[in-house]
Write a structure and sequence with these properties.
The structure is a homodimer of 400-residue chains. Chain A is built from 15 helices and 13 strands. Chain A is of the alpha/beta class and 400 residues long. Chain A folds into 2 domains: 231 residues, Alkaline Phosphatase, subunit A; 139 residues, Alpha-Beta Plaits (2-Layer Sandwich), CATH 3.30.70. In chain A, helix 5 packs across helix 9 and helix 11 packs antiparallel against helix 12. Chains A and B meet through helix 4, helix 5 and helix 14 of A and strand 13 and helix 15 of B.
Chain lengths: 400, 400
């Protein structure tokens, strides 16, 4: 649904909407037992919620498409991820809580190894330690470029973030990573004329870095990808009329929330801290995004039992959220991360929406197969927000 | 999903994908028994496959739209048939295995009957025999036009194919068939200026044919429809990174495969021959389209029992395909051809996809109602290919 259609229908009231995103929620059957992580877990609060809700499964981006965290969350926030794209450089900066400004030019960097001919022998520089990465980043941070500030921050192992800050920067710049060993790093090239000045700066940075890294084997060169600037997303206040807040333990999700204009709330280090933060801020906002990460992390680890345990952990905060009396309570995921796949996947994601007028279906359990048979069927993830607004009495009639 | 999005995500690996198209697969309940052809047939191999797969029903073009063979297949090949259209003339040429060249101008021809005033009295010339059609085609083939070669080939009964071959031809030409008796055949008219030279040639052909057919009553005139040229479809190698091969007994399906860049494999005359061809070529390609025709033919005949028997015949090759060890095995149909309708229909079509990570659902039988309750629900047929690529590990993440 086009956001302009929704925007025209929005009315305000004092209802409260909660969206709990269980990262990487969907799973796959364990071949030994035939049960998915959700089917195997004792998530009785989620099951009870599903029994009182209308359920379905969401398609984050499109059938067969495996989403990254950016597209998966934007879809649940109501933004078509095929239309609104967040660049890799921007996500890298958001992911380390870097205080990105609107005109900053960000890129994802890799340290790599080159041989005497300047050809890449290892695109990941032997996965140097994060400590080494931090030392090298500190060295590169000293590079000076005319008219712009240079920020270099370590991310993890061989990965770092580069940000240039100044006037007139543009992000239409091709990757310098040739994606294959045996080739030389590419010079940065402008994809549109407006990026020519930025390209000059980037290439100047790379050449200076090459000198400073020359004796740092295996990290004796770098590659840059995903040049990007702050994407101009309409804010949730503008399109949905919502004063929205985000509660998340990981920087990436706080950053994504900022992109759509949410207030990011200070919280602690556990899911119980997140619940407490929700409680303390209940009166101040009318939409809350609460993010739970461990399900995705354990799925990425390929650890089925640990993902089951994570599902059981997030299950414990459901009664506390219900006790706050939300008008609409949604539980979903940004994508599936089956332990069987040990990574994000394209599979649909269980979803439940509770409200007094949700048209409860016959689903009794919160799992992949049960939810699919629910009242919402197979639904684009972008439909969650319009549906939430409707259930909250925040959308007027379309047409007379 | 836009093919440009898929194209960007494609990676290559050594997986094998098989798409078995059971033409006209979907059916309708026999009013005497309440069972569809699939429900009545003993297709135990298909049922076992469905039980191990994720199932659904496909919508070939759109809800309520009955597809021809062209759109039905293009959709399963991943091409939106509303965007990529194959003209009737082109399909007619492909359907008789005519060696169509890229710049050829093709049309579907009908012999018809006109009276002394030149008005049509029978648009199908009394459905003359195919033999008579062949004799008349041989006569028309003698017509000479300036600068182009003329090909006229019989198709069936009153139907023939006209192809003009030469430089600078264009297909923006309106039909000469007025679609009603009591009217005169229309002159060919250019729909765009670039087709004016071609129109002149077509009208010259028609006037010469009128003279040569004058004493051939009831086939004393002709009508031309569906002027078209080879449609510029991106090849499966470009958009999906697949080295694809087609195995089909009928020319039409071999021709449609050529349009999307598949290699057409020599095969025999039975479905067992098709299986053998698949076996012999297993190492040479990474995608195989295998076509089975009899289900559609028997459905078109309105012969319920014969369609059941055809389903049981194609069922026999399922174990042989599985024995080859495909990474992804899809079974579907280009459209429904219920014996009750004795023709193509708009109904959804059963679909099953097996892979190790398909997220098997609770479907136990391969039939219309069972599949609809499956994990894929009601799905656009164009989603089959992205889903197959995902299950084969051939699509990377969208966004970071």
């Amino acid at each position: 649904m086009d956001l302009d259609v929704i925007r025209e229908l929005v009315v305000k009231n004092d209802s409260k909407i909660v969206l709990l995103v269980i990262d990487g929620l969907g799973g796959l059957p364990n071949p030994d037992t035939g049960r998915s992580e959700l089917e195997a877990s004792n998530t009785r609060h989620l099951d009870r919620l599903a029994a009182d809700s209308v359920c379905g499964v969401t398609v984050p981006v499109g059938i067969g498409i495996t989403p990254g965290s950016g597209p998966g969350h934007l879809a649940l926030f109501g933004y078509d991820p095929l239309k609104y794209n967040v660049g890799r450089g921007t996500l890298e900066a958001l992911g380390i809580d870097f205080d990105l400004k609107r005109s900053d030019l960000a890129a994802r960097g890799n340290f790599c190894t080159i041989d005497e001919q300047g050809l890449i022998t290892d695109r990941r520089a032997g996965r140097i330690s994060t400590e080494t990465c931090a030392e090298l980043a500190a060295e590169l941070r000293k590079i000076e470029l005319p008219g712009v500030q240079v920020f270099v921050e370590p991310v993890r192992e061989h990965r770092f973030m580069l940000v240039l800050r100044g006037d007139g920067l543009a992000d239409d710049i091709a990757d310098t990573d040739p994606q294959h060993v045996g080739k030389a790093p590419l010079p940065a090239v402008a994809e549109r004329p407006r990026a020519e000045a930025s390209v000059k700066l980037v290439n100047q940075f790379v050449e200076e870095a090459r000198k400073r890294l020359a004796d740092k084997h295996p990290a004796n060169m770098l590659l840059l990808r995903g040049f990007s600037q702050w994407p101009e997303l309409p804010h949730m206040s503008e399109v949905f009329g919502l004063n929205a807040a985000a509660i998340a333990l990981y920087p990436m999700y706080r950053g994504l929330s900022k992109l759509v204009g949410m207030s990011v709330l200070e919280t602690g280090t556990t899911v119980q801290d997140e619940l407490e933060t929700l409680r303390q801020n209940w009166d101040k906002y009318d939409f809350f995004f609460v993010h739970y990460k461990a399900t995705d992390s354990r799925g990425e680890d390929g650890n089925y039992d640990a993902k089951v345990a994570a599902l059981e952990e997030v299950d414990t905060i459901i009664p506390g959220i219900i006790a706050l009396g939300p008008d609409v309570f949604m539980v979903g995921g940004d994508h599936s991360t089956p332990a069987m796949v040990a990574g994000h996947s394209w599979h649909t994601v269980p979803f439940a929406l509770w409200s007094k007028v949700c048209r409860r279906d016959r689903v009794e359990m919160f799992d992949e197969e049960s939810c699919r048979a629910g009242g919402l069927g197979i639904m684009p993830a972008t439909s969650a927000m319009p549906l939430a607004l409707a259930n909250a009495g925040r959308l007027t009639k379309y047409g007379a």
